[in-house]
Amino acid sequence: MHVQATMNVAPRLDYAALAVCRGLGREAVSHVAAMSSVRRLAPGEALFNEGDRTESIYEVLSGMLRIYKLLPDGRRQITGFLSAGHLVGLAHRNHCLYTVDAVTPVTLCRYPLAHFDRLVDQVPGFARRLLAVTSDELRAAQDQMLLLGRKTAEEKIASFLLMMAKRQKSDETVQLSMTRSDIADYLGLTTETVSRTLTKLKSHGTIALPAYGRVELTDREQLEELAAGELAAAA
Amino acid sequence: MHVQATMNVAPRLDYAALAVCRGLGREAVSHVAAMSSVRRLAPGEALFNEGDRTESIYEVLSGMLRIYKLLPDGRRQITGFLSAGHLVGLAHRNHCLYTVDAVTPVTLCRYPLAHFDRLVDQVPGFARRLLAVTSDELRAAQDQMLLLGRKTAEEKIASFLLMMAKRQKSDETVQLSMTRSDIADYLGLTTETVSRTLTKLKSHGTIALPAYGRVELTDREQLEELAAGELAAAA
DNA sequence: CGCAAACTTGATGTTGCTCAAGCTAGGTGG
DNA sequence: CCACCTAGCTTGAGCAACATCAAGTTTGCG
Q: Hey, is the C-beta of B130 within 8 angstroms of any chain A C-beta?
């Protein structure tokens, strides 16, 4: 096998490290490698549109996607942000019921649906793994419903910051690659409220905003309590 | 095989008609029959509590369950109502992250998790079927996020009534077996707002409230438009 | 019949939205 | 290299939708 120098952003993919391959044997991994291809998206570019026929499943390799639904008058609800390791396209048989587009430049690994389905049937443990993935998503969705339906603006922002921190495996600093408007549409708020709430948290010394798109969690404990809804009236 | 007269609520189960058996062969159905048992719950009785270790998967045969999460100060978000044909327990490996209890008297079919897992591995198509079930749930969850984050009280109620009608396969009349408080906690509202909004819809002739727990959809078209968010300012 | 739980209705309050203005950062072209 | 332009962000003032608090009414049940 040749180890060759490749383009800037596309070093030879380590297939065994892919999320879809976790727990698969060598042979299955080589199947995945054989059927997959790489795709790139520029910021704002769409991967799926609501109503699209879908023929692929994607795994995010780098960057961030947002997945959202719209109401006719333009109200938008972002139902999730997807970053490296997340799968897109499992939930929709036939048609996609939401829009997925790129927040930042994104690299994806594409798996044709037909081949993917074959893996489900033939590779032991694969279906179980996918089931676990969708179960995780379902659990996240339930947390998000609790957030949307019952948390205050401050609690929503705290929960969001902690979620991003966890995802970035960072205890201190969070990189927000999306806009305030994206955050607002994810949390069921307006940009103004997001902005005001961040300012408020900052003035309380709970967080710091050292640079655009960057948040420091200076008082993590306070954030955790806020996110858990344990500080009923901590104005 | 003996066909025997059984207790009032427990006629011999038609296993082939169970949701878990859809698409399974005769042999697989007999496996299901062999491992399953029936369980009953009285209103208010819990099936799972948040944090429980879980060893079973259940299918609802009759009645209605609610599934919810709580914040420390008692705020509650109901993430779903389950009625006949729904499965409970797929999403949680090991531990349950929400509470499930009975709204009405409930009959369930219980499947031990270990046996269930064996089916997943051995019965072709079974895993795929479960994947389809969780995908449906995921889609419903996304709709609910849109509702919770971006719809008005009136739109929420309209969506809810239509959802219940669809579920009951009824075009005209909906039976609401849960309380106003349950509805409120499902839609991210208060009981008062639910009550007021129903009254408002009634006074507009969109619905009628002929009896406790019963709603007639007198102007279905209006409801559909409301639910879709097409009537921005139709006060 | 009487009680408790559920529901409705009214009066008032508050959170977060709307509308509006000014600020900041980063990219572009002169 | 700088000035401009724009998209994104912040801040303020006023407002509206929904929550809260508080009676009263209905219903089902013991």
A: yes
